Amino acid sequence: MNTDPWARGPVRIDSWLWAVRVFKTRSAATTACRAGHVRLNGDRVKAAQTVKIGDELRIRISGFDRILIVRQTLVKRVGAPLAAVAAEDRTPPRDPMAAAGLRDRGAGRPTKRERRDIDRLRGRDQGGEHSDR
C-alpha cells in the first residue's frame, strides 16, 4: 500500500484544496469551484481542472480572497505542518477597519455621536454640515 501523499504530476484542484486543508470536505471544494469562488491563475475553474507546482489560486471564503501558491501537489489529505509546505499563503492581512463598521443586529440606528465616530473611523470628510457645497 502506497502511503506517500505527494503526487508526481498535476492533481485535481478540488482534491488539492481538500488535501491542504482549505476546505473540510472535498465536496465543499467542488461546490466552491462550481460557484466560481476558485480562480486558477486568474481564470475561474471547474473542480476537475488540474493544478501544478507554481500555480496561483485565489479562493473566495467568507467575503475575503485567500491567495495560495502551489509548492507541492498532494493526492491525500495531510496534517497542518505538511499542508503549510505544500501551499504558500500570500493572503494580505485583513483590514481591521472593516470589522469596525459592524453593529449588533438589535442595536438600532446609530445616534449622531455614533455616526460621527463611524465616519471618523472610515476616514470620511469631517468638513461639517455644508462640506459638499
From TrEMBL:
GO MF term list: DNA binding; ribosomal large subunit binding; single-stranded RNA binding
Native source organism of the sequence: Microbacterium azadirachtae
Recorded family membership: Belongs to the HSP15 family.
Matches recorded under PROSITE patterns: S4
Biased composition (Basic and acidic residues): 114-133
Gene Ontology biological-process annotations: cellular response to heat
UniProt xrefs under Pfam families: S4
Keywords: DNA-binding, RNA-binding, Stress response
InterPro entries, sorted: HSP15, S4_RNA-bd, S4_RNA-bd_sf
Region (Disordered): 87-133
Gene3D superfamilies noted in UniProt: RNA-binding S4 domain
Domain RNA-binding S4: 11-75
Protein name as annotated: Heat shock protein 15
